[in-house]
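Hi F.,

I've been meaning to write this up properly since the lab meeting, where we talked about keeping a consistent format for the predictions we share between groups. The idea is simple: the sequence comes first, exactly as it goes in, then the C-alpha cells exactly as they come out, then a line or two of notes. No screenshots and no reformatting. I'm using this chain as the first example so we have something concrete to point to.
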Amino acid sequence: MQHDQPPSTIQPADSAGGPNVAVRQMTIDDIPAIYHLGEKLFTARIAPNAHRTWDEYEVVGFFQTDCEFCFVAEDENKMVIGFALGTVIEKHHSWTYGYLIWLGVRPDYQKSGIAQRLFRQLKPAMIDAGARIIMVDTDAENAASLRFFRKMGFNHSRQHVYLTMNVDEDRRRLEVRRKDRIIRYTVDDHEGDRGDHG
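Output, unedited:
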C-alpha cells in the first residue's frame, strides 16, 4: 500500500475539514483523474518494492470489481485531489478481510486530513460488507505512512521481507535461443523444399 508523499507546496486555505472538499464514492468519470494522480504519486523511485504496479488496469479493475470500496476526494472545482481504493476478501471457513490497497492525496493537499476522511468513508463500507479485520501494507521505512495508519487505529504490524531476482540475463539468453531455433527451422524447411524438387 502506498501513502501520501511529503507535501511539495503550501497547504490550501480550506483544510479537508472545510466545506469545499467533498469525499464520495468513485464513478466511472473519475478513472482518468485517479490514474493520472496515482501516476504522479506511485513511482518506482518512491515505491521501488511495491508488489502491485500502478497502471490504468489497476483503476479500471477496482471500478469493475470493488467500486463500493473506492472513494475520491474532490475540491470545490470538482477536481479529484485524493482517492482510496480497496477490496474485501472472503476466505472460506475464515474471517472476511478488508484490504486498503491504494491511498493517495495530491501533494498540495497532504497533511490536511483528506486521507483520514477517505479512510473514514472506506472503513464502514468494508464493515457493512462483513469485514472483521482491515489490512494495509506500507514500506517499513515510510514513517509518515506508519504514523498515519497507527493514528487510524491499525496495529499489530508484521515485518514483511521482499526478495527480488534479476532475470534479465536469463531473458536475453532465452531470446537468443528462440531466435536460433527460428533460424534453424527456417533453414531446415528451405533445404527440405530443395530436396523435394531435386
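Notes:
The beta strands are 22-25, 70-74, 80-90, 96-105, 133-136.
The longest strand covers residues 80-90.

If this format works for you, I'll send the rest the same way.

G.
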